[in-house]
User: Fold this.
Amino acid sequence: MKNYYLNTLLLLFVLFAISCSDDEDLTKVMECSGEALHTIDNAQGAMIYLSCYDAWGVLLDDALLDEDRTIGASKDIEEEYKVEGLRVQIDACFYEFDLPLLFPDPAFWGFLYNMENIEMIEQE
Assistant:
């Protein structure tokens, strides 16, 4: 009887250790430097090419604060996401926009931010 209890206890301990060891951190929060204006978590949007900056960006579905349109732009977008209109979900840090303007463009993009620490997945 004593062995039965020890075996049961050992089995429960092993199951507990296995079930907790490989869990992904579902509450992972994007960490941005103190200079970040916004931290974006699980935001949805569409890819957009900003030709006057030669950069790709994400036009967020839900604009930030009192903005009409919010776009996070970066020169570091992975090649697979450089598709106009591609639906994506992102986590990123938004900073003051400072990409150099290559040529004048009359289009009003909306509020622009530099994106860093970008984690992006394609929406299905």
The mean pLDDT is 80. The chain has one domain: 1-124.
